[in-house]
Specification:
CATH superfamily: Gcn5-related N-acetyltransferase (GNAT)
Number of domains: 1
Order of helices and strands: EHHEEEHEHEE
Strand content: 25-35%
CATH topology: Aminopeptidase
Structural class: alpha+beta
Strand order of the largest sheet: 1-2-3-4-5-7-6
Helix content: 25-40%
CATH class: Alpha Beta
Number of helices: 4
Shape: globular
Distance between the termini: 29 Å
Radius of gyration: 14 Å
CATH architecture: 3-Layer(aba) Sandwich
Length: 155
């Protein structure tokens, strides 16, 4: 498996990310879904990586240093593993890569929003095992029973 910067010209990336949005659509009302689409992931303040196995995208992870966050605080976005490849360590490898990238740039905190539903339980376990702890809403987020907020201090 290789972790590579996203190739936005790859039509497979668009399909992979759309599948991510489609997977989440039935889990919560639209106002409680905070995933970024392909266009938003191309913003200059977002870094997106793909886990590639052979020619296939097996997973994605992104960090966003959105203007609504203070300097040194970034948000983990677009964590997804191909459903057929879950349980193979792809998400943990992507998360480790994203956190190493953040540390190399002296980012002090990474926060995330994920769903509170059972569908997102494996993600919450992954984040807790990586040291993320529950936190209040950050940036422009508000309290939402469909959301869980977590954060990790890097320095």
């Amino acid at each position: 498996m290789q972790i590579l910067p996203a190739d936005f010209a790859d039509p497979g990336l668009g399909r992979f990310l759309q599948a991510h949005l489609d997977d989440m659509a039935p889990t919560a009302p639209a106002e409680s879904r905070h995933a970024l689409d392909l266009a938003a992931l191309q913003a200059p303040h977002v870094r997106l990586w793909t886990a590639v196995i052979g020619e296939d995208i097996a997973g994605t992870a992104a960090l966003a240093s959105a203007p609504i966050l203070e300097p040194g605080h970034e948000e983990l976005k677009s964590m997804r593993t191909d459903p057929d490849r879950r349980g193979q360590g792809i998400a943990s490898t992507l998360l480790t890569h994203a956190l190493a990238d953040a540390r190399s740039r002296n980012v002090r905190r990474i926060s995330l929003e994920t769903g509170s539903m059972d569908f997102f339980r494996p993600a919450r376990i992954l984040y807790a095992e990586a040291g993320f702890a529950p936190c209040p809403p950050f940036g422009s987020y508000a309290e939402d029973p469909n959301s869980v907020f977590m954060t990790l201090k890097l320095q």
